[in-house]
Amino acid sequence: MEIEMVFNELSALPQPITNNIHTARQWMSTFIQTTVSATAKFKVKRVLRFEPEFFNMLLAPDYSLSIWLNDKQVDREEKRRWTSLQTKYPILVGFEETKTENQYLLSNFSYQGNPVYGLGIAYLLDALALSINSDQQWDTCQLAIQTPQTVIVHHASQPNHLQENSNWIEEHLRQSVCDGTDLWNRRQELLPNLIFCESVEKQLRVLQSGNPLLHPVVKQLFEFERYCQDWTDNKFDKTKILGHCSGESESTLNKYGETRTFLCPDGQWRLFELHAKLGLNAWRIHFLPQPESHTIIIGYIGSHLLTATG
Questions:
Q1: Residues facing 194 on adjacent strands
Q2: What is the spatial distance between Cα 200 and Cα 185, in angstroms, rounded to a whole number?
Q3: Is 277 left (phi over 0), alpha (psi -120 to 50) or beta?
Q4: Residue 34's CB: how many other CB atoms inside 10 A?
Q5: What's the angle, vertex CA 117, arms to CA 111 and CA 123, rounded to 5?
Q6: What are the CA-CA distances from residue 286 to residues 9, 32, 237, 278 (Å)?
Q7: Which of 9, 109, 136, 187 has a CA-to-CA distance to 306 between 20 and 30 Å?
Q8: What gap in Å lies between CA 281 and CA 215, rounded to an integer?
């Protein structure tokens, strides 16, 4: 299931949340940076849910969100990034007459004794709650709410909170992949730093829903993507990739090097000696790091290729 974002209205209370317009602009700048990082780097869906009065929220005296959107002193790019979001209100639009709406109506969500709406919806939708960083209590990657039992909501009020929630986000994205065809069709969205050889398409499409190999393949590809996102130098270090990654022996390359040479999207044939062992049915992913661009080419996904030792 894809992850949406839900606004925590408590972070905009009391009204106004500051007496300083400059501070209000800074808080909104951080808020926008958080949504950009969530959608661009962590692939959270570009959907922000909130209550209709959101646009009338007072950031400072006589300075509402609507006024902020028309403030000439606000960076134009920040406004553009805001308008690029798909906003949804009322908060449960699209869930009318569903089990989720019924749960919302029957639940009494609260945070530190105060009734909450956004945080409750974030919990029901397993979404990412977003706050304006207007108070120290919102400087956290998780919030505990009561319903009446205590439950945890994943949360962010600044970009570093997204990194702290990265495992949860990544697991959601992996679970959203229904089969190998879906992964191939969404590869640029989910795995933008991986380059796939054309032959890999057929290899992925055989992984239908329920195939026990689907999960380990998806997990390893997401691990490659994570490495690329964190890659800053011009050296490749396979020890920093989770999973069992190794190269081929010289004897195997001398005897079977051609079986590990694949046609890349740029029309060049390249040797893929590095591979990740998936452990299930002896499957392998052969890959080729590109240090200059901090990308990885995926050349082969399939059963164990012949080696010099059998």
A1: 296
A2: 12
A3: beta
A4: 23
A5: 75
A6: 48, 39, 16, 11
A7: 187
A8: 13
**What integer is the mean pLDDT of 70-76?**
94
pTM value?
0.74
Both tokens of 180, joined, read 């190998």
Q: Tens digit of pLDDT for each residue in 214-260?
A: 988 999 999 999 999 899 999 999 999 988 899 999 999 999 999 99
Tokens of 293: 């661009």
- Alpha-carbon Rg for the chain in angstroms: 23
Query: CA separation (Å) from 280 to 54, 62, 102, 217, 254?
Result: 50, 62, 42, 10, 27
Q: What is the mean pLDDT of the chain?
A: 92
Residue type, 298: I
SS3 for 18-63 is: CCCHHHHHHHHHHHHHHHHHHHHCCCCCCEEECCHHHHHCEEECCE
Q: What does the chain come to in residues?
A: 310
Kindly report the three-state secondary structure assignment for every residue of the chain: CCCCEEECHHHHCCCCCCCCHHHHHHHHHHHHHHHHHHHHCCCCCCEEECCHHHHHCEEECCEEHHHHHCCCCCCHHHHHHHHCCEEECCCCCCCCCCHHHHHHHHCCCEECCEECCHHHHHHHHCCEEECCCCCHHHCCCEEEEECCCEEEEEEECCHHHHHHCHHHHHHHHHHHCCCHHHHHHCHHHHCCCEEECCHHHHHHHCCCCCCCCHHHHHHHHHHHHHHHHHCCCCCCCHHHCCCEEECCCHHHHHHHHHHHEEECCCCCEEECCEEEECCCCCEEEEEEEECCCCEEEEEEEEECCCCCCC
Amino acid letter, residue 83 = T
CA distance 185 to 167: 23
CA distance linking residue 193 with residue 42, whole number of Å: 12
